[in-house]
Amino acid sequence: MDWLLRLKDEPQCQEAVRGLHAWLEASEDNRAAWQAALRTWQLLGEVKPQYTDLWSVKPAENVVAHPALRRRRWIAGVALAAVAAIAVVLAGPALLLRLQADVMTATGESRLVTLADGTEVNLSGGSAIGVDITAEGRRVRLLAGEAFFDVAHDAARPFTVKAGGAKVVVLGTAFDVALDPSSTTVQLARGVVGLSGAVASSVTGMAPGDMATVDHDTGEILHETVPVGEIGAWRNGLLFVNDVAVESVVARLQRYHPAWISLPDRALARQRVTGLYDLRDPDRALRALVQPLGGKVRTVSDYLRVVSRF
To answer: pLDDT (tens digit, 9 = 90+) per residue, 218-229?
Structure first.
């Protein structure tokens, strides 16, 4: 799977191609593992690697395996089955997101889009929105990630943004919405907005510099203030957070990091931090986030980082 992901990220890298060829030639087990990885990739609906000759590489046939070799293959098969199961679980939400989204960004990608009403939406990396603009109303759903909205004024059609359990209603203003695993954060840069949670709690008349965080479980809204200049700082490659759980910051850094970030330490995940982090160097930002709390970032491979205090 590491070879497959590397080729997917670097399809023109001849060094990677030569390395894969050498690895495939090293043993029949490697060739069998490669085919299993490709079959898993196909089941997920992914396209073949550009190098079709690699796609067709097959394990050697009519070879009588030693019992120890068969045992290793059985263990490898179980491991690959587990990887496939995990991949399907991870791919399910991604597929659903693609079906719902009108605009999406890849990891590390930012994109500025102009909606039919003239509203400008700047999406951060790993983000997605669904858009519904009609003569009767203007509605946007933030399905993943973070977006900065500069809403075109239209007194006859309020502009509504839904994200998690939060709902923002405006006529014309500029604000940032971040959808995290456990909460939705709204920061107002210009104008006035009304915000409501999943329950009866609401905030009306937010002023520039106001920040409101809606808890997805309780619907409770926490109200704070932040420097207006820091709102939407990610558009300039910086991430500003104020009293935010580490797991939420990791989720935001994940949008800019090519590797999967695992945070198994729940106590560390619940710690709260305030800081400014450089999104242009996500590994450095990750270390700066957890080291003051006694955390460490372990590089397992090019495609995995594990964050813990042990």
So the answer is: 888 888 899 998
